[in-house]
# Entry
Amino acid sequence: PYLKIPGNDNGQNKSKRPYWRYSISKNKKGETKFQRKLCYPDRPSYLQRSDWLRHSFITSPQQVLSDLFLPLDYPNSVGKEYMSYQLCDSLQGLCSYLRGVVSTSAVLTAAGVGQADANAMGAAMTWALRDGLGMVGGLLFSYAASSLFDGYVKEWKLFADVINDIGLTLDMMAPYFSPHILYVTSIATVCKIMCGISAGATKGSITQHFCKRGNMADLNAKEGTQETLVSLIGMMMGITLANYFQKLEEKEIKQATFSISASTLSWAIFTILTLLHVWINYIGVRLLHLTTLNSQRTFEAIAPMIAMATSTCNGDNDWVASALFSIPSPGDLSESLFASTCFMLFPRYSRGLVLGARLSDITRYMTLEEMQEQLQINNKYVLFMDGKCVYVALLVSTNEQDQLEAYIHARIVQEVLKKQNLDNKSALSVARKQMSILKS
# Structure
C-alpha cells in the first residue's frame, strides 16, 4: 500500500533528501483514498517539523542551502552547464543592481532633488511622461521583434543585457542634459523596457533547455530564490556605496580642493561594473549549448553534408551515408553570435539566402507555370534566384520538417552555383537530383 519516491531496490531511501510517501486506503464507506506525506529520513520521531528544520540547519547547513537554492536532485535533474550559467547570471545581476543605485542617484539629481527651486509637480509630470513614452516604445519593439525570440535565444539574451547597459548609461548622463532630461530619460526607459521584454521572452527557453525531468516549476522557483539572494546582497552593497558617496559629497562641500569628486568616482565604478557586466554576460551566453536549431546553427550543422553533396554530382549515392553521419548534434555546436545576429538582421547580405520569401517577390522572377512545376516536385516550397541570392517561398501548410528540407535544398543550390559554372536553371536541376538522392 505504500510507495516511496525516490528509493532503492530494497525500498529504503538512503539519501538525506526528503521524499514523498504515497498510500492508498479505503474508508468505512468503501471509498478509495489516495494520500501522500512528506517524509524526512534524518528526522527523529520526537522532533516536530519546525524543530527538525532548526536541527537540520545546525547539523547539515550545506544540505539546507542546497534544498533552498538548487533544484531537486541536482545535478542529475538539470543540464551540465546549469551551475556555470547561474553563477554568471547571478554575478551580472549583482553588477546591474549596483549600477542601478549609482544611475538612480544621477537621475534624481537631474530631476532636481536637493535643489531649493525644484518643482515637485514638474518632476512628477516628467516621470509620468517618461514612463508613458517608454511603454509606447516597448509596444513597438515587441511588435517588430516578437517573431525572432524563439529562434535566436542566445542573441536576444545578450541583446537584453547590452541594451540595459545603454539605458543605465543614459541615466548616468541625464544630469548633463538638464534642459532635455525628458528625452534622455525616455530613451533610457525604452531601453530598459526592451531589456525586460527580451529577457522575459528568452528566460522560458533557457529554463526549458536546463529542464531534464519535467521540473520546470522547480527550476523557476529556485531561480527566484537565487535572484532574491542576489538582490539582498546587492541591497547591502548598494546602501554601503550610497553612504560612501554621501560622505564624499559632504567632504567636497567642506573642502573645495578635495582630490577625487563623487561624480568622478561614480563614473569610474559605473564604467568598471558595466564592462564586467558585458563580459560576464558574454561568457554566460557562450556557455549555453542549446539543443534546438536556428538558421546559424543549421548552417554550421549541415555544412559538411552540403560539401559532400556538391562535390560529387554524377548521380552516385555513395556519399549519402557518410554525409548524414557527418551532421553533429545541436548541443555540440558553438556558433558565432556575431554571424548569427547578422543573419537574423540581414539574411540577404550575410548568407545570400532568404527563407520565407513573399509571394510578391516570386511573381517578379517566375511565371505561374514555373511555380506550378516546382510545387509538383517540391510539394511545399518554391526556389528562385536573384543574382547570387537564393529565395525560398513556403506554403502556409509547411511544418518544421518541410522548412528544414527547403533550407537544405537552397544551400545545395548555393554551393552548386559557387563550385560549378552553371546558369540558374542548370543549378536548380543539379540540386534537385542531389536532393532526391539525399531523401531516398
User: Anything to note?
Assistant: The mean pLDDT is 78.
